[in-house]
Amino acid sequence: MGTATTRRRxxxxxxxxxxxxxxxxxxxxDPSVPADRLWRVRLxxxxxxxxxxxxxxxxxxxxxxxxxxxxxxxxxxxxTVTGDRFEVTVPIGSxxxxxxxxxxxxxxxxxxxxxxxxxxLRVGRHRGVPPKAESITFPWQRVEGRQRFRVRPGYRAGGxxxxxxxxxx
Length: 169
Description:
Blueprint: E1 10-19, E2 22-28, E3 39-45, H1 55-70, E4 77-82, E5 85-91, E6 103-114, E7 117-124, E8 141-143, E9 149-155, E10 161-167
Parallel strand pairs: 1-7
Antiparallel strand pairs: 1-2, 2-5, 3-4, 3-6, 4-5, 6-7, 6-10, 8-9, 9-10
C-alpha cells in the first residue's frame, strides 16, 4: 500500500442531487490525474468544533469521542469515471449515526491508487464558487424508522463539500 500525497488537487463538483434518499455527486477530475483507475469516494468524519452548546452535549462529549474512535465510517463508495467526468451516489441510510452521536459532518474525497501512490482529491466547488459558499444550502432529507435522522450536503470555507447528518426526535 502506498502513501498519501499532499498535492493540492481537487475534484470539481458540477452538480449535486439531494433527493430520493441519496446524494448524487457529478463533477470533473483534475486533468493531471489518471482517470482510468478505480476511484472511490471516502467520507472522513470531522472532529467536533468548539465547546458543546448545552450541558447535555458537554456530558456526552467523552462518550461521543470514544464512539468516534471505534466507529467504522460509511463507504467507500465506487465512483463511475468516464473521461474526466465522475459520478457517485451516496445512500443517505449509510450516514446513520450510532448512539450517542447526535450529529456529524463528513469531508468528501475521491481516492485512487496510482503506481503505489494514493491520490486523494478533495471534492467541492473550487472554481467559480462565490466567496460565501456557506450560503449555498440544500434541503434536509429525512430518514424515518428505527433511527430517525436527517442528512444534507453543504459547502464550507474554500468551497469544500461536507455531508451533514443529525439525529431527530
